[in-house]
């Protein structure tokens, strides 16, 4: 494995305070800053120092403007600002997504098919929105999908690597495990169907817990991965709960020949929606600017002859949000709560409070309904008081009163898993490096997911029981950089892995 460089020096930015490193990339580093006014945490991506000529700066500005146009999308990371630091490095100020991203989850969690389908549709909507704005992502992978504070996937890193120099393009900005064959060829060439492949490869990883052509426990060098991507069929996912229809969607989207793939990201989204429907799952809505438009509903022959009437009918129909989708579990989508029928009634008059003007006297029927409701409330309260007074005397059976007035048990909110601290190490006599770290909140059953940060792709992560690991011998004088997460017994893990380097 090739060791990676240490983080670059964070630039001094007016109005911001540097907090810590969030991640290292081949073309940029990401830092956590605190914006002072308005006060909030933000992620700042800083391009690495190098030959940044006027052409590169101009293209960087153009891309920043394009990304800003996409920031309104709920599954695309919001861009707050783009500028040039005092040391000449361009940087982007983005929303800080504090929850674990897909790269932190897919190797340590078994994501449900329902969640993966929901994430897939939302990501496909984001990719389609970018394509319609003329932007190819070129590097869709789990590490580039963050999670917002509200649990939505958020796609980031839109082709920034392509702006680092003439000819860099997709060839140097790609990540091999999720790249289609055409981007691995000489010369590399791709279009929207290349993003379709990478989108499907990312969905595959979420289901399989590994990259598509990775052999668990086998040799997975860059050359071997490229050979499999170019010639081997898509391997089985290896999960009995993944339906054949979903396998078929991924097989088509990851076809070797781009002409055999889905022609667009929205076509992938619709195919995933069909799988959701076949499994009787709530169908995830497409987040596209024109998807909210509905065809006018036929109002019947009486509305057809008069164009004015037809116009009035259309205007009313546009206010109808349409049929509600199939209900989702309460912890996944609050749509059910919004559409639940609400029983309303007029409350009984409160002594000393006058009725609203315009209706001085309530109708007798209304007064009788209010009195009846009040009587029911008083009787229910008396029943509860009687149960409390009797305490343990007798064995009361289940009844409407206990069901109505007993709150459902609340699940405890799990505390966030911290990241390891104090990463350090010692270079041993044989050239290997022993890396150690500390657990700031040790608990029974804790384990550690660690890996060496490499120049290409993601680190190969290994789960260990002790806060130490040994990295094989490196080239003389080469730094060793690692990332480490704490994994609890319930499989929850650090929101952000810690990173550190050993000289």
Automatic annotation (TrEMBL):
Q: Is Transmembrane helix among the key words of this record?
A: yes
UniProtKB keywords: ATP-binding, Kinase, Membrane, Nucleotide-binding, Serine/threonine-protein kinase, Transferase, Transmembrane, Transmembrane helix
Task: Write out the residues that bind ATP.
Answer: 45
Q: Which residues cross the membrane?
A: 369-390
What ranges does the record give for the region Disordered, renumbered to this chain?
291-310, 342-366
Give the GO molecular function terms.
Answer: ATP binding; protein serine/threonine kinase activity
- What highest taxon heads this organism's lineage? Bacteria
Q: Does the keyword Cytoplasm apply?
A: no
The protein in question is named: non-specific serine/threonine protein kinase
